[in-house]
Amino acid sequence: MKNVLILGGGSWGCGIASILLHNLIKDNDIFKNNESNNNLQKQLIELFNTKNHDLYNKISHQTTHYLNNIDKLKKDSGKIFIYSRSKIKEDKITELFLSVAKTFLLKPQYNINQFIELLVQKICIINDFECCIKSKIIFDITFVAIPLKSFEVFFVENKKSISLISHNLVVCSKGYVKSKLQNSFDYLQETFNNNLQIAILSGPNFAKEVLDKTPTITTVASNSNNLLQDVKGVIQNDYFKVQTTQDILGISMLGLCKNIIAIGYGLLIGYKDSNLDLFKSTNSKSMYFSFAIQETIKIIDIIGGDVLSMYLSAGVGDIFLTCTDLKSRNVSFGLNIANEILNNSNTKIKSQEIINKITTNNTVEGIDGILVLHKILEKYNIQSFLYEAIFNFLFTDYYSPDNYRKFVCDVLDLTN
């Protein structure tokens, strides 16, 4: 592995970093051949509990040393650079170190401090790109782990810098850029005048579980076979598997739709009246998912994507992940609206007030997602009873038990 850049020091950025670090150090001489032993992680926890190692400053000092000594950087290639405009919290770095330590066992002649030093030497943290430009570093792969809502501002500000230091971008943010009505791939192709190779990483991947090294699969989409193989080569390992496809349109649409499906699912399972409790109805949930998959496949087909992408991990796998965890932001959003309606059953409540209340300090990707999808459906003249039902209900003027019941009938196609 050569030098890799991660844009974003949040949960998903650290999740990607943990995979890359694992792959970078797994064959190091300090480890025993047999893995699957968490003694090293336990030692690390004990050490962090008794002493503040100030990992951020250690890594920052090491970064400065490398950037001021370009010959050493070239000689010691195989670094993971993490870009974050603000200081990465110490607990994020600690979590990253603990993640990497989880499946390794040190040989007797090595100690925990040598393990920490190994990781410190492999990570660089930067908060601007000038240092990289001056050092003439070219990153083989750049992972974009910043929220989609920040895309435009970030790439307008940093377009020139990114083009000087990166040849290949891997977008880890799913869906569409709202203002442009473009998927992330098309937006970046246009932004960089088709001068960079771009891929989309989209899978059923909770960052916390990636950091826990639980068995995980993801899908990478690109029109470049070389980039697909390069990305697979740096991130695939024994616990993180990669599927590849050239269906950018299909994978992008799946990334958009899965959050909308999750909102609809939260609304559905929150419904309860004297005769029906949909939270307990496995039949109704299965019915909803059947319709959601059918409607999404229809949209993918009409816009020119490959319907078979639904059967990749970015399809049914990601829909399953997003909907079956009730802590999911989008499912929770639907459930919270349901609770507001049921708790105010004798009155109409303004929809926008409820949406604003629930989304204060909480990003719900599916809200912008359904607005974007609604425009796409209009553009292609696509009729979708399920997605139209979600859109019409969410953005009605008032919520009430009557229009909530109508939504349930519409989304389950009970009116036909």
Mean pLDDT: 92
Q: Stretches where pLDDT falls below 50 for ≥5 residues?
A: none
Number-wise, the strands total: 12
User: Major sheet: size, sense and barrel closure?
Assistant: 8 strands, mixed
Structural class: alpha/beta
Global shape: globular
For the biggest β-sheet, the strand order reads: 3-2-1-4-5-8-9-10
Strand content: 5-15%
Cα(first) to Cα(last) distance is 57 Å
Please estimate the helix content.
55-70%
Count of helices? 19
Radius of gyration: 23 Å
What is the subunit organization of this protein?
Answer: single chain
Short recap of the structure:
This protein has 416 residues and is α/β, with parallel strands linked by helices.
Describe this entry's structure for a reader.
- The structure is a single chain.
- The protein is built from 19 helices and 12 strands.
- The N and C termini lie far apart (57 Å).
- The chain has helices at 11-25, 39-50, 55-67, 70-75, 90-101, 112-122, 130-135, 151-165, 184-191, 207-211, 225-235, 248-269, 282-303, 313-324, 329-343, 351-359, 365-380, 385-394, 401-411; strands at 4-7, 80-83, 123-126, 141-144, 168-171, 176-177, 182-183, 197-202, 216-222, 240-245, 349-350, 398-399.
- It is an alpha/beta fold.
- A hairpin with a 4-residue loop joins strand 6 and strand 7 (182-183).
- Helix 12 (248-269) crosses helix 17 (365-380).
